[in-house]
Design brief:
The protein is an all-alpha fold. The chain contains five helices and no strands. It is elongated.
Length: 159
Amino acid sequence: MTMENERQQHITAANRQAEQLADRLWTLTAEWGEFAKSSIGLPLTQAADAIGLNLLMSLGHKSVQEHMQYIAHARKRLAPASYWLQRAVKRGLVDPADAQKINAQMTELARRLDQYAQSVLQFSRQSAAQQYRKIAQDGPPAGKNKDAGEIAEEPAAAH
């Protein structure tokens, strides 16, 4: 399996799990009364939806730094989701056994996000190494000095 295929496999798995979590929490909170929905359900579902949204946003960026930033944002949204889920349990809105299953789902999603981040970094390192080997083999692109230590001659001034 190529590095790109592995990276695609990780993002697909993470995105699928993020969607499943968000949909599960939406279904769970949809049955609550208005006050519970607005005070706990809304921030819980927003946190879960933000995970998938940040993963989607990461795909639109070529820069490794931006890509990793969106993955980190997705990972960070698990904490508020967990917090609001625990509030729902304490307030009798969610059965503790159901919350335990959802927490296990969030733990698995966190693992998937970590794998995705690692695959992005590995792909980046592999890509950089390939570019370096190409330059070492073919020389620098046209218009670039071969040695960074060389001082380019300034063009003669026109009189």
